[in-house]
Amino acid sequence: MKLASYKDGSRDGQLVVVSRDLTQAHYASHIANRLQQVLDDWNFISPQLQDVFDALNAGRARHAFPFDPAQCMAPLPRAYQCVTAAAWPSHTALLQQATGMASESDRTNGPQMDQRAGDALLGAQDALHCATEALGLDFAAGVAVVTGDLPQDCAPERALDGVRLLMLCNSFTLRSLHSADASHGAAALQSRCAIAFSPVAITPDELGEAWAKGRVGLPLQCSWNGRKVGMADAGADMAWPFGQLLALLAKTRPVRAGSIVAAAPVSNAGVEKRGQWSWPKGFNSIAEKRAMETLQDGQAASDYLRYGDTVCVDMKNAAGQSVFGAMEQEMLV
Length: 333
Prior knowledge:
The protein is an alpha+beta fold. It has helices at 35-40, 42-57, 89-99, 156-161, 186-191, 242-249, 286-297, and strands spanning 2-6, 14-18, 24-27, 65-66, 81-85, 113-116, 128-129, 137-138, 141-147, 163-174, 194-197, 201-202, 211-212, 215-216, 219-224, 227-233, 259-263, 272-274, 277-279, 310-315, 327-332. It has two domains: 2-71, no CATH class; 81-332, Fumarylacetoacetase-like, C-terminal domain (Fumarylacetoacetate hydrolase, domain 2, Alpha-Beta Complex), CATH 3.90.850.
């Protein structure tokens, strides 16, 4: 099924069920008002929502209305915790080559994982506000999961069973504050300024065969000011699938329902050789683009986001239909 949170003036929004083709919606207030309620009592509430979803798709829902992504908050507008993970080694390796810095991720110790603020998550069309362009606002498009309860030190297989919902994400970072010299200080915390999510969250079964072994095997489409810049396969080259990421999160403590783990940016290993470097096809963060330019020309040429810039993220299935609904963020003062 597919779920969303409509804006209603509150901090958590109003839970709605959305049809598979993203054209119709139905309020779920007779079952649950907020998505966190569903996550807290998943086994009891989710079957009732499934009935609404089935009726909506069959055209039997009496109070259906046209679905409007512009009215969506993040599916889970506030989360107990929100973590980002660099799950694709090709991304961190490219940045390491360009900067000469030691990578914070390797296949032995696991990926870099950072805590993000979960108190004000952005909806799919919410604007980004930045005090100055000089802060170097960058995007990182990826895929996220929302968990149920996970026990401490659970195995990856058990952790994967705890995935309740999937979403698209776009994690924003102020690169001028996110430097090696301040990687663990207040500036690094401030640099992780925002994260946005797709209009709807979906249960794993909605992906069919595209959801396999904790990976989403579909291309992630990313556009910057209307120009397509990324078309990476979200399943390919993901060294740390979601089962492993969740197991790492729960290694030393239990994880409660409503936690979010966002894997971003999606990055595929390079396939086109230019000199000694192996270039990926496209990019899902400006830092990756600048790293390519530095390796090729000795310096980066691309600017970070400017006022008025827009970043769009979407994922379509084999039939060409949007799975999560498209995201579009505009940078404003």
